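quick one: iron/sulfur cluster bound model?
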Amino acid sequence: MRLGGCNLSCRWCDTPYTWDWTGIGDSGQAYRASEELHPMPWREVWRQLRDYDVPLIVVSGGEPLSQQRRLLPLLRAAAEDGRRVEIETNGTVAPLPEIVATGVRFNVSPKLAHSGDPEERRLVPASLAALAAVPGTAFKFVCRCDDDLDEVADVVARYGTTPVWIMPEGQTPDVVQRHLSALGDAVVERGWNLTTRMHVAVWGDKRGV
Ligand code: SF4
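yep, here:
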């Protein structure tokens, strides 16, 4: 489930259609909120989600925790229905205790300098600490080169953001593969986890997959 709106504006964002209404991102394309956003009551969202016969629901964005109060009844309904839920977040918003109590897992992706976001906006110590304290939280960093890994190490040392996963930046299979190859050995040497972007490898930058 992809939610609209984000409190950051990463220049290489792969989902600018959730928040970029002015063309500030690398693509330069300004999307229309009236076309991209589809407000609906949570009960209707849950009715649609419930029809998918899947054990795991991933809530992504945009930044889902920006609207966590409105998300809460949906998360409770999913938990009561026996579904696991993971929330993808940029780590700048601390989760409410009620959200944590539903048993969700957080996949946190703090942004590095190459996102173009100022540090005081992309790294919020109290929010990172709150997320790190939730059992099962994982931290995933989008990287391109060795220098990015040094920056990740600095973030980990300052904020205790473990376990660490490194994901190559890229919106085409060629670019993802290039960054993956450039990063692989160094990630293994540091004892971190390495992942790729399977949906890009299979479907490129196609939406809705
Ligand atoms: S935090 Fe995520 S959704 Fe928001 S601009 Fe950055 S990459 Fe895009």
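Residues 35 and 122 are 28 Å apart (CA to CA).
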